[in-house]
Amino acid sequence: MKKGVIFAAAISEVGGVLNSPKFGYRRVSEKPFEVWENPTKVAVITGIGLANAATALAWAAGEYDFDFAVNIGAAGAASGKFGAADVGAYFDITRIACVEPYCETVYELDALGGARTATLATSSRPASTAAQRARAAGFGELVDMEGWALARAAEAFSKKLFVRKILTDFSPECDIKAGILSVCAALGELENFWI
């Protein structure tokens, strides 16, 4: 049976799940990427950013026999559509665009289901200022640093990609790191996702 592969940028996003006996993951490698497995899934920690994400999916395509991949992780609000009440909410991403030059392709994705939907802008830098968020809002409602690169690599390797993001921040005044840590605990609620 083929395993699904989950991609997350940082262990801080998913470590609570991977280290929980409830989900049965064990770390199987640390290089070139940290990889965790249970009987039905593989989780790859890509590292933050476009290059790390694309490289991780390309590497996994050569190491594992899988038809689908899921990117799960943190995203900030790019548009004013989301606020404090939305922090911790899950979103299935249905469209990904990149704010960087020479990355004009826009990817349309299917939703996993069971969550609100949103569009995603991917940037090579954190959208930490109001101006950066406003620029990203021209490309998507949420903003991250890996989604578009994973979509590009998934296309190149003929892998179906789903993207689920958790909103961690909505303005430059938010404590992004604290938001990510709170999300880590909430991920355990997605029990069927992990096993």
Structure, explained:
This protein is of the alpha/beta class. The chain has a single domain, classed as Nucleoside phosphorylase domain (Rossmann fold, 3-Layer(aba) Sandwich). Helix content is 28%, strand content 30%. It is built from six helices and ten strands, in the order E-H-E-E-E-H-E-E-E-E-H-E-H-E-H-H. It has a five-stranded mixed beta barrel with strand order 5-9-8-6-10. Helix 1 runs parallel beside helix 5 and helix 2 runs parallel beside helix 4. The two termini are 14 Å apart. The model has no long low-confidence stretch (mean pLDDT 89).
Give a topology summary.
Layout: E1 4-8, H1 11-18, E2 26-29, E3 34-37, E4 41-45, H2 50-63, E5 68-77, E6 90-98, E7 107-108, E8 116-122, H3 130-137, E9 142-144, H4 147-156, E10 160-169, H5 176-186, H6 191-194
Helix pairs in contact: 1-5, 2-4
Counted beta strands: 10
State the CATH topology: Rossmann fold
Task: Specify the biggest β-sheet.
Answer: 5 strands, mixed, barrel
**How large is the count of helical segments?**
6
Overall 3D shape: globular
> Which CATH architecture is right?
3-Layer(aba) Sandwich
Share of β-strand residues = 25-35%
Helix fraction, binned, reads 25-40%
Coarse structural class? alpha/beta
Any idea how many domains?
A: 1
Alpha carbon gyration radius: 15 Å
Strand order of the largest sheet: 5-9-8-6-10
N-to-C order of helices and strands: EHEEEHEEEEHEHEHH
Overall mean pLDDT? 89
Assign the CATH class: Alpha Beta
Q: Cα distance, first to last residue? A: 14 Å
| CATH homologous superfamily (4th level) name | Nucleoside phosphorylase domain
Low-confidence stretches: none
